[in-house]
Amino acid sequence: MTRRIVSLAGAFMLALASVSAAWADIEAWEKTFNQGLEAEAKGEVPAAVKAFQASAVAADKISSKDPWPLVISLNKLAALYKLTGEMRNAEANYKKALDKVDGLFSKNPMAIAATLNGLAGLYQGQGKFKEAEGFYQRAIDIDEKTMDVNDPRRARNLIGLGDLYLAFGQIPKAADYYVKSLRIIEKVLGSDHRDLVEPVTGLATVAFTNGQLGQAERLYKRAINIQERKLGPEHCDLRRTLSSFASILRAAGSDDDAEPIEKRVETLEQKCGGG
Fold first, then answer.
1. CATH 2.40.110.10, domain 26-146, yes or no
2. Domain coordinates of the chain in residue numbers?
3. Contact in structure between 220 and 204 (CB atoms under 8 Å)
4. What is d(CA 50, CA 181) in angstroms, rounded to the nearest whole number?
5. Which burial class, exposed, middle or buried, applies to 3 when counting CB atoms under 10 A from its CB (0-12, 13-18, 19+)?
6. pLDDT tens for residues 165-179?
7. CA-CA distances (angstroms) from residue 169 to 50, 164, 174, 199, 206?
8. Integer angstrom CA distances of residue 63 from 33, 56, 71, 161, 188
9. DSSP 8-state code for residue 272
10. pTM recorded for the entire structure
């Protein structure tokens, strides 16, 4: 009897030590992951990468029981590597994240969709159309199966696929996905939400490509108006929209209209720098 009690006590102590170690790993992940988020918010990319790497190490220790912290850390790392042009590292981390959870669809579909979206954007930037299209479609399929038809988060992958088709000259398909995303955002978030800027400018480019210059100008003005109201007329995010609008005006021969917009872009460049 005494031996049995000792044996049970030993087993209990081992279990307790295992639980304590697991909690320590979870706490280490949370701490380092939050450090990464803070560094990222400050624009301190090397520090953010270092923190997310540490969080991935901590998360890997508990990944057999809960893979999602590791997936989240790997996705953050991949996005930062992509930002800094380290495409091989970005691809490796996205793929590692996907391999860890592919097949666990029902448990955390959003994490899987985010990984697929990251890989799609990565391959799009590398000009790998088929690979990018496949990952966007998989992400959209997950969104359709798990989200309400009007969930505004569905717009992300629809816009991504629209951008892909636009970049590779499939204009009707691009327009279709931009319109789908725009309708979702307008219905749920309103007609002047800042998330509309991407599909609206995408449709403006489609209109310009189709020779609809007046429509393109109206759409760009709408996007700029949304950004000015929501962010302010001197916000750095306006640079890209204004620059694209000026380029379209130049291409249409409206040099007088393009010039003041280009001056605004120059002013914003001086204020915001090259980032």
1. no
2. 26-146, 178-275
3. yes
4. 35
5. exposed
6. 999 999 999 999 999
7. 39, 9, 8, 16, 10
8. 15, 10, 9, 31, 36
9. H
10. 0.74
